[in-house]
Write a structure and sequence with these properties.
The structure is a homotetramer of 206-residue chains. Chain A has one domain: Glutaredoxin (3-Layer(aba) Sandwich). Chain A starts with 9 loop residues before the first strand and ends in a 15-residue tail after the last helix. Chain A has a 7-stranded mixed beta sheet with strand order 1-7-6-3-4-5-2. In chain A, β3, α1 and β4 (69-75) form a beta-alpha-beta unit. The radius of gyration of chain A is 16 Å and the shape is globular. With 206 residues, chain A is of the alpha/beta class. Chain A has helices spanning 47-63, 86-95, 115-119, 147-159, 188-191; strands at 10-11, 17-21, 36-42, 69-75, 102-105, 127-131, 136-142. Chains in contact: A-B, A-D, B-C, C-D. The interface between A and B is medium-sized, with 30 and 31 residues.
């Protein structure tokens, strides 16, 4: 069944973070293996994140059990760095009563984009990144995504068994074609990353 | 994985309808076998249906492909019968621009509840009924249900293969216990029908 | 001060109704003299009325005291007459828990528009008609109007004294020019009736 | 006519600000004399301000003409001072595209409350302060206020002439009784400050 999901899931570069909130110790993607993972990349001064992305992350945390779905915030500051530091984020988290783990994407002194955001090739904030139980990339979405298609995708991933051999990562060599489109990209991760923008809002391709 | 779903799915009594809109011929549950089915039971003068249920049905129709998910409206009139007849419904469907198939639940001259509503033991409107690809009952929910847990449940059902032998209908004899609770009902269909009310709003039990 | 209001208020033709709900006896505009009056013209099967107009009428009723502001519903059926009769409306009023007086605009056997709607030259539903304490037309608005400019207009009218001589109805002869525009109409009631559509949504001209 | 308004309007202590945005020069209350004034006191990390207060301020700016109604933001930081400085506010104003003048309430090294907030005895953020054309306090409201009663109050104030002698400031000595209640306070400004909380949400007392 076709979906919003990337069909030739890719291995995911690790998180690179400088600080964490709401967790006793730093979180790694490896430590989340076996659970479906939603990473909500945001900036505290991004209106779309505050109005839509973060409330959706809160709903995700409330709607799914923690041992099945991990919800992680990632503060990917790529502008106004001087006023969105860790202390400002700490106050923001406190005022907005956010309770899920939130990591600070590690700043890169040589460019405005922080390291995870750059490595993951995120287009902006808010962005949703979804990994399957094997820790592989299944969705990368910039902008608003409706609850219905997002819920459908997560339900689908939650139903899939944790069986590494089930998935053949055919596209690691970049020779595959992009699911549901004619992007013809060498690497589906790159080639498909804009795919959700061509869909009607929140369309679940099934 | 536990969910909002009824875990010991039951066979579903057939639809009993007197008229259909938006479909060239009457729809039967048998004809939908192989697709996941959402039946939205409503009344045109029910505020909760107009404000929440029907817009959600429209979103469902837009978010999922028709060959995977069937969205059916069912006009279950159990009050004000004289002003919610088929002609009134026809005008309502036209004004609200509803495009999915809508059946009129067959009136019973001996009681206010129409026949499908009575046989399916629906508690009121709006009600959501979800059937799996085998046509068996997986959710019966009275009142509002959030998009996220509904989407998750549908994604999960869509991911399940159409393999009748996958599910053992252990509870056909009514001896099973209710999923995720201690309802101890003889028949999970009856015993669990109120279960969603005990949950936090839209909680997806996973 | 200029406003959304018609500045050369016109005398208003009487209501022509065939039935009333939520009032012990029929209401006439004359009987409301001394209060500011909001008439919400609607149809029970009009989505915009159900989603926006009627909830706003309920808010108006809650926000202002009855002895200062009268809120009246007017069921102006101009389509689907056979399924929006008085009995259907009665069920609708009951289900939506509407508590303010609602009159049924008198049907005209010779044309689809009911008599008040035709005489008042309403363009459709929902429409808001506002009269000042002297019973004169001050606003006629088709479609959605935001709470802020509507509240501002009502506050302004409520502040104006009930002194007939304060207003010189200069335009009874139709020679005036239209407020805030260059409509140059002979009769400001006609010439200005479309004016709100040229404004930014809910713009209060002050 | 009674309203949400303070009926024995008080002279208002001046704004004490350390910096302004969106205005070529600092704004004083005296310079706004002749216009009705809405001051929206907020903090950039206050969720209620971001979700309700500031969007309402934007709607106010759009709905009323500037020469009649002045809309002023006041950044009253009383917590997390170190991360809500002027530079952080500047980024916030940029990201949220706020276009009306915003002043920074002057910090007081001896206490957390900034000077204007303390002098005006504001209870928290968001707070709405409304002054009439004479520059006198007519409303001080902590928390959310619906558009309809706010619009009504502003319409009423806009309709009142700029005639200082119209109002006798009887309560300057604090001997008056509180409007619409039995607060019996010495000073209606103090005694009434909590009054809006006793009202049904957004009730316009008229």
């Amino acid at each position: 069944m076709e979906t919003l999901m990337i069909h030739h899931p890719s291995p995911m570069p690790p998180l690179r973070t400088s600080r964490w909130f709401n967790t006793p110790e730093p979180i790694t993607l490896d430590s989340l293996r076996g659970r479906v993972v939603v990473v909500h990349a945001f900036q505290m001064l991004c209106p779309g994140c505050v109005a839509h992305g973060l409330p959706q992350a809160v709903r995700l945390r409330e709607a799914f059990p923690e041992d099945q779905l991990a919800v992680i915030g990632l503060h990917t500051v790529f502008e106004h760095h001087e006023v969105m530091g860790a202390e400002a984020l700490k106050a923001f988290i406190h005022e907005y009563r956010l309770s899920f783990p939130i990591g600070v994407d590690e700043a890169d002194p040589n460019q405005p984009l922080p390291r995870t955001m750059a490595t993951w090739k995120l287009q902006g904030t808010p962005s949703l990144v979804v990994l399957d139980r094997q820790g592989r990339l299944r969705l990368k979405h910039f902008g608003r995504l409706d609850d219905l298609p997002l819920g459908a995708m997560l339900g689908q991933l939650l139903e899939q068994p944790i069986a590494p051999e089930t998935f053949v990562d055919e596209d690691r060599d970049g020779a595959g074609t992009c699911t549901g489109g004619t992007c013809g990209a060498l690497n589906p991760w790159q080639g498909c990353r804009d795919k959700p923008f061509d869909l009607p809002a929140g369309r679940y391709l099934g």
